UniProtKB/TrEMBL annotation:
Residues making up the signal peptide according to the UniProt record: none
Keyword terms: Glycosyltransferase, Transferase
InterPro entries cross-referenced by the UniProt entry: Ppnp, RmlC-like_jellyroll, RmlC_Cupin_sf
Protein's name according to its UniProt entry: Pyrimidine/purine nucleoside phosphorylase
Amino acid sequence: MIKVNEYFSGNVKSIAVQNSDGEQTVGVMKAGEYKFSTSKKEFMFVASGQMDVKLPGESEFKSFSNHGSFVVEANQSFDVIVKEDTIYICRYE
């Protein structure tokens, strides 16, 4: 089943699918600043664009661009600054 998600007044949109690889989303973030919370472990992959991310427990932002990736454990929050519209893929565990 395919599900469409929309967050932050439509500035973040994704399409979710669950298949033999598990639950995943492909989405787009419009330039802006966002705070996300997780309910599952998230494996984020930047397909195109750039995002600066302050991961849980970190004091500084780290930059992730084309083909960069990071992991956020379940039940955590993280901050994201997107300077240009960015495409991402997220896998959940």
